[in-house]
Known about the structure:
mainly alpha
Amino acid sequence: MIRFLALGVPTVSRIMAVALVVAAIGIAFFGVGNYPSDDDRAIVALMLAVFALVALGIGFATPAIIRRLLP
């Protein structure tokens, strides 16, 4: 189970990061969604980009942490 976690988390985090970046680009440049102002649209796109970076960080750190914890 732990080895599956170490292998699956990076893959899922990369897929999630790509989806978040695509959503951020869609919101920022193509006007997807119903936002009252451009400032709100920019903030939402920025938050999605930050969440993508967090997802990549978790995906990068999980195998190293698992390697350290396994005997």
